[in-house]
């Protein structure tokens, strides 16, 4: 491609709309253009990158025996009602764009495709003899993200590879799951990314495994905890660890003390000169179940620990049956306005005890009249502890479970693991922390969808059995941008060779120099013909401008037919290192071939 014939518009200044380097660079270098909130056009250079990433993904998927297909993006609401996700996806999380057609039928734009693929399996897979099967597609997904940001990282329209596998049993699922873990590692390695596979939250389905593939970068929205020995890595949402030991309590007898202005653990511990490990803190949450019932949840946890909302949500989902519900729609810390809806009197915030009386709740049809009391494991063994007194300005010291306060019947593990904690597999290892961008997620679904949708096959014994399923997603567009987030310098993007839009760019320093033009044209034709994807910067611009642009768009090799032509050579500059070499014109092709091969494999 000739730059003179391209829509080639680069910006010198950082666009105001972008916060992170990769987003700024993709906009500045003319790869993407914002059309609306979370909506981007992939301009020709970007589309080439996306096609390369897709091709790597496709090759790795095909190698596992998965079959490519293309599923509809318009999805009937009925399918989502069958699986029980319509309300959660359109109302609670509100992540699905939903609409009504002219016949008053409800539809959604696909944020994911479990429902569609399960209904196909239900119709078409009859017998165990047809299994296992694995389908995948590479397609635009739609999600009404509440906070679209960082360009392609969190868009409302983005490209995903999603795959779904069907099995007769868990072992077969695990085999495909392992194959996927390997395929995903291959995809990311081939795309030139630094990444880590981590244990991930598998939500309320529980039990079955789930892993995320994290591209390591400061701008990542996820926190990864890992150990140096390489034995453990998990998303903080899921991570487990051993908490520090509690210090013995200095309080021998139980008494109520005046503790003015100590509504935080910090202030309280300073005031009482005690350690937060001697405090039982009581945190209030509000859960709304899918039948509209609000349940107020009081979690007692050791003062130095924090509640992990993902773990808490999983516990509350398990308890849905107790409230005649199926799932939790929202879990929040109730703010003043939320409290006004159910609080019978003002709460002793900052001074609540584990036995905060139920008469603080004005129960109603929508609000359960009793607190759901949970205690985290870290608080169970504390003795002579400090906690609230249910009276503002006062705490109790030297308290004990089942003496001053009944120990809540439900003991749960909802603490947040953090950097510096000891690892469970080996207490000599401490958890380290890194930021990650989730580019892939693989998941053992089990029978959640097949059961809900009545998707069964006939087993060898002649029984109707629900399919055992897995699902596997890679954010193709997010992956492409995360490559930039990992690889850039002050001059611009440094694409990994495998996914660069072009391998080489020939920048003609002076287009009125006939010899320069002649050599450039010759190389341009020759390189492209031999499969080295090459751009020709034949614009009537100063050499400096051309070199800056070549650096900005991040093409791995820049060829300059300049002064060295006298010696029958051109200058070849490697983008990543700025290293420059003079190479005989006749040897450019074979040299680049070698370099590209070496970089890709
Ligand atoms: P996140 O936690 O970042 O919202 P997710 O867990 O909802 O992502 P999945 O449903 O697991 O995402 O989707 C599979 C992959 O699709 C993700 O690993 C990610 O790479 C990509 N992806 C998800 N949401 C977006 C988005 N809004 N924009 C771009 N890529 C996305
Ligand atoms: Mg995910």
Protein architecture, described:
The structure is a single chain. α1 crosses α12 (476-486) and α2 packs antiparallel against α6. The longest helix is centred in the first third of the chain and has 21 residues, at 170-190. Strands 3, 7, 8, 9, 10, 11, 12, 21 and 24 form a 9-stranded mixed β-sheet that branches. A 5-stranded mixed β-sheet has the order 16-14-15-17-20. The mean pLDDT is 96. It is of the alpha+beta class. Bound molecules: adenosine-5'-triphosphate (ATP) and magnesium ion. Magnesium ion (MG) is lined by residues 438, 441.
Amount of beta strand: 25-35%
**What is the mean predicted local confidence, pLDDT?**
96
Shape: globular
- N- and C-termini, Cα separation: 26 Å
Count of DSSP E strands? 31
SS field, number of helical segments: 15
- Which bin fits the share of residues in helices? 25-40%
Poorly predicted tracts of residues: none
> Main beta sheet: strand number and arrangement?
9 strands, mixed
Distinct small molecules: adenosine-5'-triphosphate, magnesium ion
Give the assembly state of these chains: single chain
Q: From the alpha-carbon coordinates, what is the Rg to the nearest angstrom?
A: 29 Å
Structural class: alpha+beta
What's the structural blueprint in terms of helices and strands?
Elements: H1 21-28, E1 32-36, E2 39-42, H2 44-63, E3 67-68, E4 74-76, H3 77-83, H4 86-92, E5 98-100, E6 106-109, H5 114-124, E7 133-142, E8 157-167, H6 170-190, E9 195-199, E10 210-216, E11 222-226, E12 233-235, E13 255-258, H7 265-272, E14 280-289, E15 294-302, H8 309-318, E16 328-332, H9 336-342, E17 372-376, H10 377-380, E18 385-388, E19 394-399, E20 410-412, E21 432-446, H11 448-452, E22 456-458, E23 464-466, E24 468-475, H12 476-486, E25 488-489, E26 492-493, E27 504-507, H13 514-529, E28 534-537, H14 543-553, E29 557-560, E30 569-574, E31 580-584, H15 588-600
Parallel strand pairs: 3-7, 15-17, 17-20, 27-28, 27-29
Antiparallel strand pairs: 1-2, 4-6, 5-6, 7-8, 8-24, 9-10, 10-21, 11-12, 11-21, 13-19, 14-15, 14-16, 18-19, 21-24, 22-23, 25-26, 29-30, 30-31
The structure holds adenosine-5'-triphosphate and magnesium ion.
Adenosine-5'-triphosphate (ATP) is lined by residues 112, 143, 145, 154-155, 158, 160, 438-441, 473, 475, 477-478.
């Amino acid at each position: 491609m000739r730059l003179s014939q391209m829509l080639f518009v680069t910006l010198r200044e950082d666009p105001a709309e972008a916060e992170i380097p990769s987003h700024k660079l993709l906009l500045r270098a003319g790869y993407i253009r914002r059309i609306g909130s979370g909506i981007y056009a992939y301009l020709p250079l970007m589309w080439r990158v996306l096609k390369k990433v897709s091709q790597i993904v496709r090759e790795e998927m095909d190698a596992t025996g998965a079959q490519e297909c293309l599923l509809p993006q318009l999805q009937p609401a009925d399918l989502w009602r069958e699986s029980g996700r319509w309300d959660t996806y359109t109302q609670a999380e509100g992540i699905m764009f939903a609409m009504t057609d002219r016949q008053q039928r409800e539809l959604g734009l696909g944020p994911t495709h479990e429902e569609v693929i399960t209904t196909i399996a239900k119709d078409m897979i009859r017998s165990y003899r047809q299994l296992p099967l694995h389908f995948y597609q590479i397609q635009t997904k739609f999600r009404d993200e509440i906070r679209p940001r960082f360009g392609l990282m969190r868009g409302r329209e983005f490209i995903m590879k999603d795959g779904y596998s069907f099995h007769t049993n868990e072992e077969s699922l695990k085999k495909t799951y392992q194959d996927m873990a390997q395929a995903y590692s291959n995809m990311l390695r081939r795309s030139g990314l630094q990444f880590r596979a981590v244990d991930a939250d598998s939500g309320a389905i529980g039990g079955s495994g789930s892993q995320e593939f994290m591209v390591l970068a400061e701008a990542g929205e996820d926190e990864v905890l890992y150990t140096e020995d390489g034995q453990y890595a998990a998303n903080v949402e899921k991570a487990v660890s051993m908490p520090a030991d509690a210090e013995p309590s200095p309080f021998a007898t139980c008494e109520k003390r005046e503790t003015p202005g100590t509504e935080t653990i910090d202030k309280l511990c300073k005031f009482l000169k005690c350690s937060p490990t001697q405090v039982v803190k009581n945190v209030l949450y509000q859960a709304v179940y899918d039948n509209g019932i609000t349940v107020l949840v009081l979690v007692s946890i050791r003062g130095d620990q924090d509640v992990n909302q993902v773990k808490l949500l999983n516990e509350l989902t398990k308890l849905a049956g107790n409230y005649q519900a199926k799932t939790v729609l929202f879990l929040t810390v109730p703010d003043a306005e939320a409290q006004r809806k159910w609080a019978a009197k003002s709460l002793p915030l900052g001074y609540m005890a584990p036995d905060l009386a139920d008469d603080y709740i004005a129960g109603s049809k929508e609000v359960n009249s009793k607190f759901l009391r949970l205690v985290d494991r870290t608080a169970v063994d504390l003795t002579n502890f400090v906690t609230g007194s249910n009276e503002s300005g006062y705490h109790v010291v030297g308290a004990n479970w089942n003496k001053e306060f009944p120990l809540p019947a439900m003991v749960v593990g909802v603490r947040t693991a953090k950097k510096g904690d000891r690892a469970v597999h080996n207490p000599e290892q401490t958890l380290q922390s890194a930021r990650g961008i989730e580019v892939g997620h693989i998941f053992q679904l089990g029978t959640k969808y097949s059961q809900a949708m009545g998707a069964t096959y006939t087993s060898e014994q002649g029984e109707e059995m629900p399919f055992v399923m897995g699902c596997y997603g890679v954010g193709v567009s997010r992956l492409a941008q995360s490559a930039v987030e990992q690889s850039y310098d002050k001059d611009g993007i440094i694409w990994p060779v495998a996914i660069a839009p072009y391998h080489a760019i020939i920048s003609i320093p002076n287009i009125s120099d006939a010899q320069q033009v002649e050599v450039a044209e010759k190389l341009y034709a020759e390189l492209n013909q031999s499969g080295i994807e090459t751009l020709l910067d034949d614009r009537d611009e100063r050499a400096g401008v051309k070199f800056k642009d070549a650096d900005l768009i991040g093409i791995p090799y820049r060829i300059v037919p300049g002064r060295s032509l006298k010696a029958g050579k051109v200058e070849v500059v490697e983008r990543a290192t700025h290293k420059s070499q003079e190479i005989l014109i006749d040897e450019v092709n074979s040299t680049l071939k070698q370099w590209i091969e070496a970089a890709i494999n």
